[in-house]
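ARCHIVE CARD
CATEGORY: sequence design from structure
SOURCE FIELD: tokenized fold
FIELD CONTENT:
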């Protein structure tokens, strides 16, 4: 049966209605902030609605190969379902004899576009100039670019003008929306007459219009280094040197204008401002008898970058036509290699410190600055603050940021940089200078470099990070972000990538690292979440857990999971599941458990929201901040047994401990269920797997609150033991039933949760399982005291 392929990217759509669509193949695309697939498109703040029309058409051509053609519903708007169906019906009814048909609603807005033919990947940048607003402009572009027979037609639908995918900041302005299409028609006309349509599309100049800010310009240039998708750029004159430094082959068109965000200047419509910049650049070029024409990619924020975990570098690459169906390594780690600084014996090495990130919540807190400067001096460094002199800040030099050339000169004579998420830190890494990144209200995944011997990223996750507000903290309405790391942690991180000068005695050089314990105590005192479960009425908790259990299948457990005895004593039930005690070995276990095939459903997104709430624990994202704060103590404990090396956290949840381990020098990964692993990669920016990597020899494997979840504990622990290096350590923490707390509370104890905790061990059971896996027990600790249920066991591989 012949089918027409339909693509739509309006949130909430799962199908089309309408009698004419029974032969259609509908694909629901998403502009996805955290993943890529055949239907998940990169959430790029630099990309226009036209870019997503081009991407949906590319995907439909690649995966559907429809003989009847393709219809792409406009991703700019969020129409009612019947409105989308009316637009598609109109396209199907009037497409006969046409190569392309642009359907508009009763207000003249583009509703859907029919394409009879497919496109090549190289055509995507040209199609990105579609306005997704003006039907006539888009029709003219398709005719000029492809030579197609085109037309427009109206439908009795209302697309409402409601933003579907965050296309804000002037993207509904008719002038800025249609400008790329109008200019593309002009540029293609002469080329088509001379070379034909296909060659014209290949020859037409692709122009990136990204005048500001400096960090964004740098990331765009790095993307073009990896994949030269544009041949020219329109940029503010003060940032042109960045372009010439990074991509010297790129044709640069400079404009003189104030920078938004500086000295109080903020344009009311950034997209319209870009159009004015292009007009100014064209006029300046014409006075020099140079032509500036082509496909203009207006690349400024039309969506909130904080909502996506994709790097700004990737977003810029995608906006210019990059094929992001799978994540690409746009900035390979090998590109930024540490440069070797010639150090003069006996001198203090300069460390450049950049405090001001451009707005208040992005700037390092003033109350921390003197302490950081003093600690740097104690560690043997010579701190130089990049910026204006600050009254009261002593023991450091000051260098104004006047130009990129002056900054490059300063970096050439510096041992390292400590900087907030802003251009100087990004530029330092680009030039191979060891850099400690300080992140506050912005998300590291948007702009950090890959973790390496060159960089360390620091951030204390709060529930509002990234908060999305540049000047006011949502927690206390202040102008200071509390997500910044302490001065002690910063200097400790610096010493891991930049050793202290040789003339400094060892006690001084390591003093900052010794302050980790101070930072741990500080974190404990300032955790913004309850350190123990909230008290919920028993009936409310039971009702919530039962509602979660009702969607899962269960299976009986006919024998003791440890000793295989078949004569259990029933202890009662909890959360609708019976709990038994083995009369031979004393293990408590769920006599009826969630079916093993349904385990992924148990640990889906609702586990971290509804299940946490049912147990009285913080829920996501508060749960992540809670775990991240507490992970400091766990890292310090791990360091006392394994100071560093290759580490894996099993059952890592959202990756808080993995991130802490990585921040403190470990080569750390996590292991968890597939959906949780994806969320961990998004939340923490660390490597998390859903299966044990083969052949990996770990110095440290941790398992906090995980062994009680294992369906096959003996086999799982043996696999973990085999993944350890000789001499490597396994650290597990769980609860035990042979303690005063559980003997008193019995099944009412908070850790008795048969849906999740299949096996409720005595301490001896865990010892036996660990020893049976071939490990030697080195120590047992009771973090909350010997009468409490929690215990932590350290075992080492001989």
């Amino acid at each position: 049966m012949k089918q027409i392929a339909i693509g739509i990217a309006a949130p909430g759509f799962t199908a089309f209605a309408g009698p004419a669509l029974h032969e259609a193949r509908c694909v629901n695309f998403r502009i996805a902030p955290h993943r890529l697939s055949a239907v998940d498109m990169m959430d790029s703040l630099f990309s226009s609605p036209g870019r997503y029309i081009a991407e949906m058409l590319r995907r439909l051509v690649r995966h559907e190969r429809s003989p009847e053609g393709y219809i792409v519903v406009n991703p700019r708007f969020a129409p009612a379902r019947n409105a989308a169906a009316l637009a598609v019906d109109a396209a199907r009814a009037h497409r006969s004899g046409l190569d392309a048909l642009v359907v508009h609603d009763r207000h003249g807005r583009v509703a859907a576009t029919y394409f009879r033919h497919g496109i090549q990947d190289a055509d995507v940048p040209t199609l990105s100039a579609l306005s997704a607003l003006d039907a006539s402009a888009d029709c003219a572009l398709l005719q000029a670019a492809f030579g197609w027979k085109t037309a427009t037609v109206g439908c009795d639908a209302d697309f409402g003008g409601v933003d579907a995918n965050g296309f804000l900041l002037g993207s509904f302005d008719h002038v800025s929306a249609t400008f790329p299409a109008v200019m593309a028609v002009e540029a293609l006309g002469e080329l088509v007459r001379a070379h034909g349509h296909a060659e014209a599309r290949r020859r037409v100049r692709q122009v990136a219009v990204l005048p500001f800010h400096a960090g964004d310009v740098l990331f765009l240039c790095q993307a073009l280094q990896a994949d030269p998708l544009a041949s020219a750029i329109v940029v503010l004159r003060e940032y042109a040197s960045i372009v010439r430094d990074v991509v010297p082959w790129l044709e640069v068109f400079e404009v003189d204008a104030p920078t938004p965000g500086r000295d109080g200047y903020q344009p009311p419509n950034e997209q319209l401002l870009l159009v004015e910049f292009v007009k100014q650049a064209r006029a300046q070029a014409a006075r020099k008898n140079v032509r500036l024409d082509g496909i203009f990619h207006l690349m400024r924020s039309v969506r909130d970058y904080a909502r996506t975990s994709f790097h700004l570098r990737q977003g810029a690459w995608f906006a210019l036509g990059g094929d992001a169906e799978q994540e690409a390594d746009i900035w390979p780690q090998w590109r930024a290699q540490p440069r070797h600084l010639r150090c003069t014996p006996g001198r203090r090495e300069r460390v450049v410190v950049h405090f001001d990130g451009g707005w208040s919540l992005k700037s390092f807190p003033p109350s921390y600055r003197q302490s950081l400067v003093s600690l740097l001096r104690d560690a043997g460094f010579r701190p130089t603050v990049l910026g204006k002199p600050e009254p009261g800040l002593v023991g450091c030099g000051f260098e104004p940021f006047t130009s990129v050339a002056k900054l490059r000169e300063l970096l050439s004579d510096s041992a390292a940089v400590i900087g907030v998420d802003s251009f100087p830190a990004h530029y330092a890494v680009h030039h191979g200078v060891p850099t400690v990144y300080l992140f506050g209200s912005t998300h590291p995944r948007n702009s950090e470099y890959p973790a390496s011997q060159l960089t360390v990223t620091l951030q204390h996750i709060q529930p509002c990070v990234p908060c999305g507000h540049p000047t006011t903290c949502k927690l206390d309405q202040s102008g200071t972000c509390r997500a910044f790391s302490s001065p002690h942690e910063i200097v400790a991180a610096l010493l891991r990538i930049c050793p202290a000068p040789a003339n400094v005695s060892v006690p001084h050089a390591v003093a900052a690292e010794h302050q980790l314990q101070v930072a741990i105590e500080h974190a404990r005192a300032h955790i913004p979440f309850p350190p123990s479960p909230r008290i919920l009425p028993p009936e409310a908790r039971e009702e919530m857990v039962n509602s979660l259990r009702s969607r899962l299948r269960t299976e009986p457990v006919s024998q003791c999971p440890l000793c295989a005895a078949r004569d259990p004593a029933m202890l009662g039930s909890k959360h609708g599941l019976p709990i038994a005690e083995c009369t031979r070995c004393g293990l408590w276990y769920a006599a009826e458990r969630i079916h093993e095939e349904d385990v992924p459903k148990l640990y889906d997104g609702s586990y971290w929201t509804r299940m946490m709430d049912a147990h009285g624990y913080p829920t996501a994202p508060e749960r992540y901040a809670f775990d991240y704060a507490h992970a400091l103590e766990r890292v310090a404990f791990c360091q006392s047994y394994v100071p560093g090396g290759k580490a894996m956290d099993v059952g890592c949840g959202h990756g808080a401990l993995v991130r802490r381990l990585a921040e403190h020098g470990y080569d750390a990964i996590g292991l968890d269920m597939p959906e949780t692993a994806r969320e961990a990669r998004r939340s923490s920016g660390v490597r998390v797997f859903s299966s044990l990597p083969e052949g990996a020899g770990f110095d440290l494997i941790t398992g906090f609150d995980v062994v009680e979840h294992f369906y096959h504990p003996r086999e799982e622990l043996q696999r973990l033991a085999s993944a350890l290096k000789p001499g490597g350590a396994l650290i597990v923490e769980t609860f035990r039933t042979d303690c005063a707390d559980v003997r008193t509370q019995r099944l009412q104890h908070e850790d008795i949760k048969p849906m999740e905790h299949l096996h409720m061990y005595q301490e001896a059971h865990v010892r036996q399982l660990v020893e049976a896996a071939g490990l030697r027990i080195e120590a047992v600790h009771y973090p909350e005291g010997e009468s409490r249920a929690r215990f932590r066991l350290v075992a080492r591989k001989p």
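CARD ANNOTATION: DSSP finds 26 helices and 31 strands in the chain. The two ends are 65 Å apart (CA to CA).
SHELF: design records, drawer C
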